[in-house]
Description:
The protein has 277 residues and is an all-alpha fold. The protein has helices spanning 11-21, 26-47, 59-71, 79-110, 112-125, 130-141, 145-169, 173-181, 186-221, 229-238, 242-270. The chain has a single domain (63-272), classed as MetI-like (MetI-like fold). It is globular.
Amino acid sequence: MKADVPKPEPALRIAARRLLALRPPRTLLLSSLTVILLFCAWVVVTETGLANPLFLPNPEAVARAFMEVSTEGYQGSTLIEHLSASLYRILVAFGLACLIGIPLGVLMGTSETARALLSPMIEFYRPLPPLGIYTLLVMWLGIGEESKLALLFLAALPGLIIATIQAVRNIDPIYVRAAKALGASTRTIVLQVYLPAAGPTILAGMRISLGFTYTVLVAAEIVAASAGIGWMIWDAAKFLLSDVVIMGLIVLGLTGVALDMVMRLFGQILMPWTRKQ
């Protein structure tokens, strides 16, 4: 008696099963639904006349402003040039804040002496308004790029330091004692115990700090700037060019989302043990 040979599965069924496996998760569908509903509300409000077009233009006017600024430019610079100037300021200032803030946070998290010495300055500076600090920075550094980079750097620094301190202090001391019992040096403990264990919390602090740096961008670019998304928004608002203002805000928001996604991807590459989480 011959054994039954299973029939090959139809190609159409295989393709359908693969498509079902690739369907977007429920969270992505819900997020997309939120975006669609907000866009529909925008269209309804503008098309029915509930909002003054001078203050809230319709999506078509914003799209037209996007095309005009991208091709013809705004005040002598195209959208790419404005965006490049802002990204340069944000990335340079945020990178310097990470290079200084994360090691400083690790030091303050592991040393009671360092925390006692440095905490008063950080806690005093952290709640100060950026515009108040900017006036002093302009007096010290002038109205060039130095004062803008310094303001963005100071905006990003406190969040990084506080997140790093908290991440380091939350590490189970058993891991540190075990590493010391095995003869690990201070450098090895920092690199092999503190940073891997505190990495996810530090990454969360970096994302929050980057978002706050974005909020300070307009304040950093309103003084003696000739290019930048924040400056473009500020300058367009003076002439009631609401389509340019809204377009700039959308570009700024999408750029921030893209940078946040890159940062999360970078964290998953450096910390593969967090991918499941």
